[in-house]
Structures
1.
Amino acid sequence: MLVAFLSQQYQKDLNKNKFFLITDEPQQNTQEHRFWQEMKDVPFFEMIPSDETEKVAAVVENTGATRFL
C-alpha cells in the first residue's frame, strides 16, 4: 500500500502521520461508489469532501506539515 511505502521511505511511524483523501461521494450503485465505500473503511485515511478542504489546511498550518501528495 502507498501509505506503508511512504512511511518506510521517510522513516515515519504510520501513527504519527495524517492521511486525507479529498473526494466527493460518487453516484450510488456505481463501480466508483463501491470503490469510494471501500476507501471510506480504510483506517489510514480520513475522507474529506471537496467543500471541506479547510480542515486539511488547518492541520497543515497547526502541524507545520511539509510533505504532500
Note: The two ends are 14 Å apart (CA to CA).
2.
Amino acid sequence: MLTSSWQIKDPKVLLHIFFTICGLAPTTALWSYAPTIVGSFGFGRLQANALVSVGQWISVFLIIVAGFAADKTGRRGLVVLFGVLCQWTFMVAFRGLPDDSSAGLKFGILTMGTATCSWWHSVNGSWLSINASCPEKRAIRMALFIMAANCAGIVGGQLFRSDDLPYYHRGWSVIVGLMSTALFSASILAVLYWRANVSLRKSGTENGSMEEAMSNVQSEKTTLYQRQELPASLKANRKHVKNVRGSKFDATNEFLVADALDSQKPAQENCITALEPSMTDGGLDESFSHLEGNSPTTTETPGSHLSSNSEVYSIQAIVLSTRVAHNLNQSNLNATLVGAAIRIAHNLGLHKIESDPKICVETREGWHKTIETEVGRRCWNQLVIQDYFQIPFTGTYIIHPWHYTTSLPINCHDEDMMVREEETPTINSYPRTLSRIASLMPRLMDGLGPATAPYTLADVARHVARSDQDLRKIMRDAPRFLRVQTEDEADSFSWLPAARHSLTLSAADKIIMIHRPTLYHSFQLPALTRTRTTCVAAAMTIFHAYEYISKELTVPIWIHSAFCVTAAMVIGLELLFRESHVDDEARRLRAAMTVAAQRLRSQKSDVIAERGVALIDTVLGVEEDLVIKVMRLTHSDDQSLKSAQRDIVNNMIADNTIMAKFLALSPAVDGNFCLDTGGFQVDDWLGDATEWFRDGEPDFLNSFDMVYPYTSVD
C-alpha cells in the first residue's frame, strides 16, 4: 500500500508547497486590487481597469518565455529562482516608494510587479512533477501543488484591508515578507536539487529522476503499490479495451480493479461516489496530471493526453473541477472539458452500461462487478446533470436522451452496495433526484421549436406551463427526507440538511430556468402574470434557503452563490417594473437583496459571489435612477405613466445602460455597502416562509411540501 510518510516528510515537496503559498499569495491580492490601487494614483475607474491589463499582457509573454527557457535549458530551478527574484525586486521597490511619488513611477513599478506575478508558477509545477520517481508520487505531488495554490488564494484575499487604505502600507509590508520567504525557500530548493544532482552523478546513474538516484544512494526501497495479480479474464479484457478503444466498461482502469481486489480495504474506498469520490491510489490526482498533458507513467509518450487516452479518472477529474471552476471564473474552460469528458465516456461505453439483476454482491466476482458498474453509472450521471443544466445558458446540449441506456446509480450505501428503498437516505439520494430534474431540460429546450423557426410566444408559454407541472411532480415524488426536516436526521446523516437546502435552491432555480423564455415578457404582459409571480416567489425561496445555509455555516459550493445571482436578476426586474417603489412589498424585496449581498460579500475567492454583489448594487442603483426619472414625467393618468416607465426600463436594457453600470462597478468585498430600507427591518422577511406567498400568488413550493422545509415533524 502507499504510505503517507513520503508526502509528509519529503523536505523538497514541503518546500515546494510552502514556497508556492508564499509566492502566489501576492498574485491573488494584486490581481484583485490592482484596479483600486491604480485608481488611487488619480486615474478614473475605467482607465484604471484598462491600465491594469498592461501588466497581465506582459505576464502572458513572460510565461511563454519562462516555459521556453526551462524546456531548452532544462534548468527549471534557475528559471523559477530568477522569476521569484524579479517579482521580489518590484514588490520591494513599490513598498519603498514615498507616498508622494509620481503616478507614472508608481504605475510603472506596479505594472512590472503584476507582470512578474506567477510567471514562474507553471515552471515550478513542472519542476515538482518531473522530479517524481513514479506516476503515483507525481499524482500526489500535483494534488498538493494545486491545493497549495488554492491556499495561496485564500491568503492573498486577506492582504489588502479597508482599514489600510489608501496606501495599503501594512499589506505591502506583508507582501514583501511573503516574497522574501518565497525567495529564500526557492534558494534552499535549488541547493537541495543541486546536491541531489551531485549524488546522481556520483552514483553513476545517468537515467531516472533525482529522487530515484538518491534512493539508489541510500539503498531505500519503497513499495508504492502491493497489487494482487489480476485474473486472466480481466487482463484479457483490459488488453482488448486498449486495442479497440473500449466498447465495454468492464476494464475501467488497472488501479480500480487492483484496488477492488485488495480485500483489506474498506468497501467505501473502492466505490467512487458522486458526492464524495474516492481518493485511493492517487487515481483522482492522476487525472489532473492527465489534464495538464502529462503522462502518468512516462514523459512525452504518444497517446498520453486525455483526448487520446480514455480513462475514467479523467472524467472524474473534470466532473470534480466543476466544484471550483465557476467560482474561479473558469466556466468556459469547464464547459469545454465537460464536452471532452462526454466523448471520453462514449469511448469507454459509459452511456450503454447494462444492468444485470443476477449479480450477487455477496460473492467476490459480483462485488467487483457491482463496484465497476456503479462507478460508471455515477460518472455518466454527473455528465448528464452538468450537460443538461447548461442548456438554459448555451441553448444546446450534447447528450440526447434517446442515445443512452445507462440507468441511474442505485440507491445504496457504499459499505454494502445493497439496493435500498427510495425513502431510505443514501449518498445517492441527492444526485438521483437532481438527475430527474435535469432530465426536464432537453424537453424544455426542444419544446421551444427549432432555432431557425421558433414557436410563437403563446405556444412557448403553454409548453413552459407543462414543464412547470412536470418539475412539481418530480419534487412531489422526491424522497420525503429531501423535502421536510426530521428530528433525528443530523444524528443519522450529517450531510442531509445541506443536501436538502441545496435541493431547495436548485428546484427554485430550475423553476426560473423553465420560465426563462417568457420571464421578461411576464413583467409587461398581464397574460403572463403567473410566470412573474412564480419566478418572484422562487427567487425569494432561493434567498431564504441561502440565508439558512449561511447561518448554519455549510461549506459553500458554487451553486449557492450562482443561484443567488439568478434570484437577484428576477427580483431586480420585479423592482424595475413594479408600479410602486415605496410600499412594504418593495421594501421587503430590497431588504432581501441587501441581506443576500451581505452574505455574498462574505464569500472569499468566489468570482460569482463578487459579481452577485456588483449586480445587486447595480440593480438597486438603477432602480433609484428609474424612480427619479419617473417622478420627472408629466402624465395625466396612471396608465400612461405605467407605459412610460416600461419604455424607460426597456430602453435602459436595450442600450446596455444597466450592463455598462454593472461592468463599471468594481466588486465590493469590504462590507461598506449599506441600503436605507426606510425603517423596514431586514429580519422581518426571514420569518415564516408562508409570509412570502400573498393571496393570488402561486403556491410555488407548497405543491411538493417545500414551503416548510425547515420545520421539524414527528
Note: DSSP finds 27 helices and no strands in the chain.
